[in-house]
Amino acid sequence: MLQVTDVRSLVGLSLFTDFENFSEFNPGDHHLDAVNNMFDQVLLWSKALKAVK
User: Fold this and answer.
1) What are phi and psi of 49, to 5 degrees?
2) Which has fewest Cβ within 10 Å: 11, 13, 23, 35?
């Protein structure tokens, strides 16, 4: 049985403009709110699912 949770926020990032040297994450200012919201949702899910694990 596959059980899945999802993160509703998503951000379209570019390897060329949102990463320095193609490895260091540095999103553009126009992405900051969306990226922070997405990470907040991931953290909430990880805390909620920790008890289930």
Assistant:
1) -85, -15
2) 23
Q: Name 15's Cβ contacts closer than 8 Å, sequence gap at least 6.
A: 22
DSSP letter at 25? Answer: E
Tokens of 34: 């969306």
Strands, E assignment, the chain: 19-20, 24-25
Lowest-confidence segment of 3-7, 17-21, 25-29 by average pLDDT = 3-7
The closest alpha carbon to 18, from 31, 33, 8, 9, belongs to 31
Distance between CA atoms of residues 53 and 42, nearest Å? 16
pLDDT attached to residue 53: 65
- Model confidence at 4: pLDDT above 90: no
